[in-house]
Design brief:
homodimer, 564 residues, alpha+beta, BirA Bifunctional Protein, domain 2, 2 domains, 4-stranded mixed β-sheet, 4-stranded antiparallel β-sheet, globular, GAD-like_sf (chains A, B), ligase (chains A, B), EC 6.1.1.12 (chains A, B), aspartate-tRNA ligase activity (chains A, B), Asp-tRNA-ligase_1 (chains A, B)
């Protein structure tokens, strides 16, 4: 036909297989303007759901993009090596899957563990010198409690290079840590994958992706994986204000706090932060206030883990003018529209004020979390507030050690943990401070928190899509870090396997962005649901007793039995 | 340097890491003419062993060859789809790995199972129409009892095409079953992989790989995966002999059996088979007789599962001449030298005689097994008896059902099992006979055994490197096969998951051949040993009790405990 489609004229036909009964739903009737059948139903009949053009396209796209990445890496002389999925169980086993093995009766049960990441075999492979450029599309497994959009099994592109350059704090460029070769390869690969999609994505920036330090993104965006598709920059009050910051603070918090007979003083130990919301129609905030079903209320935006957050609406002209003038330089970057030339009018904005600790640690601040929630709420009402162009950036110079990661605290028992993993090298500039800390019997929190690592994350539209680090290659330094800073026991040190942070869902997450879909389940042919179950294959399942074999007999070879 | 190597003149150097103590062994001292350190030691220090050039080359070669296969398949419009590794446990679970999952206390324990092959998700994927050309480098898992050179986890290239052509028994070509498109793609892929190796392999045949029927290879080579790099063809006595076969039989077995007052009569129900060994130096057989350590004794060649085998050395000139004349046409193909023009002199040969059942079933005959052992024994003394050129062939027209596979009999309880898997389509020519059998209440063994399937294996140098089949697409026929021929219970039929035969170690085995190494462990970076253990990571292991958590507490979330 003129459209390029082909029309077939049927002379004769034969029905090979007929459907006995109506299907649970019809992919051909899932139009883009009607809601899809319920997720649970579609999961149960995944093979019917896969008939939907949009979902099928994602699976086909995944194949092409994975191949583009592989071709790029092979052309760059990388060697793909498969590492074992059946690995060794470790004492911190709560988060890993155990695989019992058969054995003689009355001996202790033994287990494999499914690999959480190829970290250990990969390191040994690099040490063996088989290749100085390794990669793998690695299947990884985590037995995590159900969280939205985490899969118990997921795919990551794992790569490693030997003999990369060291850190260069004197360099002109923003990339001042080591491993520029890894940066270049990763950028090339991401470009190759980007190029392989059939969707009309705006091209990535032609130059090297911008690099930010952890300190900078935490201060400006309150997050170590900021979404730069919108503005809403955060500023420290003292820096943002032209003039006397205490005067500006008084202007902001009055009259709210004067009524309580409270005064807000600038803190020496904490920093007052400022964020200005959308210069929108007055209806924006009205929506929040009305607490409509499809729009979170302002109260809910503020109360979720927001002990220090305050929402301010200056209400008198004099005060507004004074504030507008004092905050003039901040207002432009604080608009939700990124790259806008105009400053929003303060009286049509929502101003938010918060405090944060001076030494930042962890993945986000309260203000940063608010920034994300505000943008989502604004975008729900007007999607144009989010820039359509992809925003990709590197974040580097993370603190080497942290006490703020909730996930890790469980195993850490109050000790310091590695922000990335215990093999990450310190920044060249901070080696002196690390050595100093190692010599002290009780180094100060501040000293340890100030040591930066040679760790980098690649962030796309607010999602961490890749991350890595330059490794410690000095065995003595490695052991000192483990024993003196991380305070690992002999057992933990011997195992070298703890608190391991590897990128979760790396390739799956990247594919979800490439396919413009919110859920990684839409880029996996047969995914598990949020609680880790597979409704299609009905797994996991109890071991069914057949006529011949009882449950007890089936567990016996593993030297296990049901808990009594 | 003139050799192309680079010599480095050192001005200055710095030792970054020193080895504290002597290494267990030195890869640089593993010369080709000295025996390697013991396998257990090399497995324990795999990262040192990987420094050996030969082993490292294999791992690098694997990467290149896998990429060549992927590129070929992508160019042929195949779509790579990852299927779940965590799948559902089935009642025949003894051979699969179970993965316990956490859950509420006092509920029944639930399990995933690690995929044995992507069979089920793959079929559903094809049914969904996401692609009509699927492939995957699939990680598969079998909890098998330790066997030499089987890995509990292994890699196979799994591919499937929709809408392939049906069987064509009238065709001129030897490929008379369906799925010629799969044959062509597989041949193309194997050629691409062959081409990607750096080893100087003799090229594969330019034409399509030769196709043999199961009946032909079983009759000529006594194996469904014959090694054609040597001759030693087997012949039926009645066909091989020019003249009276009973006369030839008398010539052969005398005087041995005359002494026992026994006579050997040609059997109607069984077939007498004949194989002639190497036309060698007399020393060959002397070696066997001497029972040297490095050479199996003739007795050991014959007694292993060889109830019907007889070894004959005609000892009188008159008898030799008469036999040479009667067996003239057989002698040439029965020489170990494949493609030789000359017939061996019978008095310098060993003649072997055996009986086999008329209707063949299973993977090999006694004579076929002897053929393999004889060739290995001859080759140990003179490697030139094995043709250096790779010998690749297709085997088709297998019997659809079997009662001879030892591995399957355990689960079969005396029933028929599928030679390949229960979804294999019958040959077009045999559909009538299958329908006939389905109508009978007790179809004869002979009738069922005569039905051939659309199943094909690719055999390289005596190793099955690929295999597959055209599927049944008629649900009624599929169910009839399962219920009436295979006699599966409701439970088994519902699960569709039993007696599953998928190619074991497909890609690993292929790589071992490409790398000229006997063991698949030499083409896997971190393999498991023969008992499924990994001495490097010391897995599987007992769950170690740490100070904080006891073994009992660690098992509790799975609702399991140690067997009491």
């Amino acid at each position: 036909m003129t459209t390029g489609h082909i029309e077939v004229l049927v002379n004769d036909w034969q029905l090979l297989n007929s459907a006995d009964s109506p299907l649970p739903f019809y992919a051909s009737q899932c139009y883009s303007d009607t809601p899809l059948p319920k997720e649970a139903l579609r999961a149960r009949y995944r093979y019917l759901d896969l008939r939907r053009e949009a979902l099928g396209d994602n699976i086909r796209r995944r194949s092409r993009i994975a191949h583009a990445a592989r071709c790029f890496l092979h052309d760059a002389d990388f060697c793909e090596v498969e590492t074992p999925i059946l690995l060794r169980s470790t004492p911190e086993g709560a988060r890993e899957f155990l695989v019992p093995t058969r054995g003689a009766p009355h001996t202790l049960p033994t287990f494999y563990a499914l690999q959480q990441s190829p970290q250990q075999p990969k390191q040994l492979l690099m040490a063996s010198g088989v290749t100085d450029r390794y990669f793998q599309f690695a299947k990884c497994f985590r037995d995590e409690d159900g969280r939205k959009d985490r899969q118990p099994e997921f795919t990551q592109i794992d790569l490693e290079m030997s003999f990369v350059s060291g850190s260069n704090q004197a360099a002109d460029t923003a990339w001042r840590i080591g491993g520029t070769e890894v940066r270049d390869v990763t950028e090339g690969m991401v470009r190759a994958m980007w190029h392989a999609t059939d969707l009309k994505h705006t091209p990535l920036p032609k130059d090297s992706f911008p690099t930010y330090s952890y300190a900078e993104v935490m201060q400006k965006y309150g997050s170590d994986k900021p979404d730069l598709r919108y503005g809403l920059q955060i500023a420290d009050l003292c820096t943002a204000v032209q003039g006397d910051p205490q005067f500006a603070l008084d202007l902001l918090v009055c009259p709210q706090y004067k009524q309580d007979n409270r005064e807000l003083k600038l803190s020496k130990r904490q920093i007052d932060q400022l964020l200005v919301g959308k210069d929108g129609q007055p209806s924006t905030i009205e929506h929040f206030k009305a607490d409509r079903k499809d729009s979170p209320s302002l109260a809910s935006l503020l109360t979720r883990k927001s002990s220090h957050l305050r929402h301010i609406q200056p209400d008198c002209r004099e005060r507004i003018d004074a504030l507008s003038s004092a905050l003039h330089s901040h207002l432009q970057s604080a608009s939700i529209y990124s790259g806008t030339e105009e400053s929003p009018a303060l009286d049509r904005c929502d101003v938010f004020l918060a405090r944060r600790v001076r030494d930042m640690n962890g993945g986000s601040t309260e203000m940063g979390d608010l920034r994300t929630r505000l943008a989502a709420a604004f975008a729900q009402q007007d999607s144009s507030v989010i820039n359509a162009n992809p925003q990709i950036l590197w974040v580097t110079e993370f603190p080497l050690f942290t006490q703020a990661d909730e996930e890790k605290q469980e195993a850490a028992h109050g000790r310091w943990t590695s922000s990335h993993h215990p093999f990450t090298a310190p920044a060249l500039e901070d080696v002196g401070r690390l050595q100093e800390a190692l010599k002290m019997s009780k180094p100060s929190k501040q000293l340890i928190a100030s040591i930066r690592g040679q760790h980098y994350d690649l962030v796309l539209n607010g999602n961490e899509i890749a991350g890595g680090s330059v490794r410690v290659h000095d065995a003595a330094l490695q052991e000192a870090i483990m024993r003196k800073i991380l305070e690992l026991s002999d057992d933990e040190t011997n195992r070298f396997q703890h608190l391991l942070h590897a990128l979760r869902c790396g390739f799956d997450r990247f594919m979800a962005i490439m396919c413009d879909t919110a859920s990684i389940r839409d880029v996996i042919a047969f995914p598990k649901n949020a609680s880790g179950a597979d409704p299609l294959f009905a797994s996991p399942a109890v071991i069914e007793e057949s006529s011949a074999v009882t449950d007890r007999e089936q567990l016996a070879p593993y030297r296990l039995q049901r808990q009594i």
